[in-house]
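Long-time lurker. I teach an intro course on protein structure, and each term I like to show students one example going from raw sequence to a predicted 3D structure in token notation. This year I'd like something fresh instead of my usual example. Would anyone be willing to generate the tokens for the chain below so I can use it in lecture? Attribution to the forum is fine with me.
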Amino acid sequence: MHEVNFDEGLDIILAQDPRFARDAYHFIRESLDFTQKLVSKENRGPIRHVSGQELLDGLRQYALQQYGPMAVTVLEEWGVRSCHDFGEIVFNMVENSLLAKTEKDSRDDFQNGYDFTEAFRKPFWPQHKLVSEAKPLVN
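-- Reply from a regular --
Happy to contribute to a lecture. Here you go:
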């Protein structure tokens, strides 16, 4: 039996579901590696399976590290506009044997993630905008 390599697997996925760019799948794969190493380092243990919530946090950190204030623009260019989209990509990869999951993992893990503006734009807002946003409006 022929084992499908990553790029062949992506060809199959993209033929079935063209919503997201090929680069989005590579980003998920790189982010997963980043997240596993991060979690391993934090827990001073071996690399292990990460949960959907851990992966979402790793995706956020990796996107900020790689793309800085352009993170949302890059993600949107790939068709990714929400944490739900991250989950769709992950499970497209799972269903095509490019990633593994446990019985506890589901698409729902990605439903109530973070707001993209809060996660990717707000870290780069000027300090005065952050302060004015925190103050209540007085009439």
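Some talking points for your students: Residues 6-134 form one domain. The two ends are 71 Å apart (CA to CA).
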